[in-house]
Amino acid sequence: MPEIEPEFSKAFEQFRDFVAHCGHAGRLQWTFVEDYLWAEPRLYLREENLLQNEHLVQAIYGLGVVGFGVELSLVACTSDLSLCAIWTPATAYEAEDRWVSGLKMCVRKPPFEATMVSALEAQAVDRKVRRSQSPGPMAELISRSVWSAAVAASRKR
Questions:
Q1: Which of 2, 18, 37, 40 qualifies as a FRET site for 8, CA 20 to 30 Å off?
Q2: What are the beta bridge partners of residue 105?
Q3: Which helix (H) or strand (E) covers residue 45, if one does?
Q4: Helix (H) or strand (E) holding 116
């Protein structure tokens, strides 16, 4: 397996440059499935949880460095942010299945367009989503990040 950059800050810089090279905002925001609300046909991003995400992403990245690799991906954009996710395979089979070896960087083409919402706006959208019971396509794309967080939490126990 190719070497993976052990320092998150250097991997972050590489990924930011990659995202910018693909024509997207160089200002990255780490996101997880819980941060999104899908109300067809719109995607909303809850802004209240975003500050804590970078610390969680750094911890998940550390697990990938000592594990089977790390996938950093751009999944959505706002007018000035690139919304990104991290995923680490829990097994060698998962790594092979997703072609993860070392540090994998990818950009969804085209990325979803998202709108930032406050906590109050998110409550209104959330009520609409619960009534429709449609998780939308974001659930599949970002659920891998939730799985990575759950694996990370279980390994710490």
A1: 37
A2: 72
A3: strand 42-46
A4: strand 103-117
Tokens of 28: 């990255």
Single-letter amino acid code for the residue at 85: A
The rounded distance, in Å, linking the Cα atoms of 44 and 117 is: 6
Do 115 and 78 form a contact (C-beta atoms < 8 A)? yes
Beta strands in the chain (DSSP E): 28-30, 36-39, 42-46, 70-77, 82-87, 103-117
Per-residue model confidence (pLDDT) at position 1: 46
Chain centroid to CA 93: 21
Closest C-alpha to 11, from 60, 44, 50, 51: 60
Max CA separation in the chain (angstroms): 47
Task: Return d(Cα 9, Cα 12) in angstroms, integer.
Answer: 5
Query: Token pair of 60, please?
Result: 């998940």
> What letter represents residue 139's amino acid?
A
Q: Is the pLDDT of residue 46 over 80?
A: yes
pTM over the 0.85 mark = no
The H helix count followed by the E strand count for the chain is: 5, 6
Contact 139, 33 (CB under 8 A): yes
